[in-house]
Amino acid sequence: MKTFFFFGDSLTLGVNDPSLRGWIGQLCLVSGVPVPPATFYNMGARKHSSAAIAKRWKSEVEARLIPESKPRLLFSFGVVDMATPSGQQNVSTEASVENARNILVEAVETYGKKNVVMVSPFPVVNLEHRERIGKLSEAYLDMCADYDISYVDIYSRLATHEPYLNNLSDGIHPDADGNAIIADILHEHEHIVLWMNS
């Protein structure tokens, strides 16, 4: 029995999507993974940085696993890290990469490489914030390559994707149509296909 965990921030949670599905719900619908027996847990939390996710992910997985579970973990964060609500970046790029490395390495050691994947943070409307996210995504990609961890760079696909960017009514969060764009891109990516179906 496969059990899927999606960890991230409000973009993972699906804030601003009136369908209440978010990209995770839409991805699960198009994936063809049978429910039951599969179980999907959306573990997104608003305003959660990489540091906050690093503190909680493992205990939240352990609290939900049952003996026959075959866990699959997906992590997608970084937008909160690169935000500057008080004029200073919430988390430095270096610290964000280190948090991601610690999370992913432990997840791979615990649950196996084929069961862990990272999806890049998503672009936002504000250009300066978007550029910081882009640099972070590149740093995440390099780190994942160093550790042979599956990484899906959706940022590059969406950073100049006008239908997606125009869908962000608050400058950050997509509605159902924007989340469908994310789900369609992920559904076609080899890392996600293997992660969901292996």
Please write the string of helix (H) and strand (E) elements. Answer: EHHEHEHEHEHHHH
The largest β sheet comes out as: 5 strands, parallel
* Uncertain residue segments: none
Structural class: alpha/beta
Quick description:
By secondary structure, this protein is α/β, with parallel strands linked by helices. The protein has one domain: SGNH hydrolase (Rossmann fold, 3-Layer(aba) Sandwich).
What does this molecule look like?
This protein is of the alpha/beta class and 198 residues long. It has one domain (2-197): Rossmann fold (3-Layer(aba) Sandwich), CATH 3.40.50.1110. It is 49% helix and 14% strand. It contains nine helices and five strands, in the order βααβαβαβαβαααα. Strands 2-1-3-4-5 form a five-stranded parallel β-sheet, sandwiched between helices. α4 (93-111) links the parallel β3 and β4.
